Give the backbone structure.
Amino acid sequence: MGKEKKISEEIDAEVEQTEAGEETEPAVDAESPEAMAAALEQAHEEVREAQDKLLRVAADFENQKKRLQREKETSLKYAEENIIREILPSLDNLERAVNQDHNSEDFGNQLLEGVQLTIKGLMAALEKVGLTPLASVGEPFDPNFHEALVMEASKDVPEQRVIQEFERGYMLKDRLLRAAKVVVSKGDVEE
């Protein structure tokens, strides 16, 4: 503490002299050449230690950078893993449906019910990752979400409304994944 106080007092004195307009000469210590050589050697040692620390930090930084890059590549490579895990039960259900006894009396109804349940399970899995179907039938035609394949006259459906859906449209979170392919009403047009 005494050494720090002495240095602080010297700095304060130099600041006061500078403020008073006096130029200060660096303090020259009249030490012996051996003491100066020892101080120089100590300074060189401190520089070597600082350089060593700097090199170690740089190496650690490079290693961290490479590790993060590998982790990023691995994450991208296996990004679909979770969604595939969610879809696998639907695939299993479809395989069970194909392997059913085709000769049973109620085969058609069982198959239809199984396929409907599989679609429901598949949609539930896809909704977990943010997929939502677009409601189109009866809605106003919107070129941002619908692709008009055909226009038909209709007495029951007003003009520019969707009559039928060929393919359902889907949103993935807040982005359009696929536009719905639809039939649009021309309104009550006599031909």
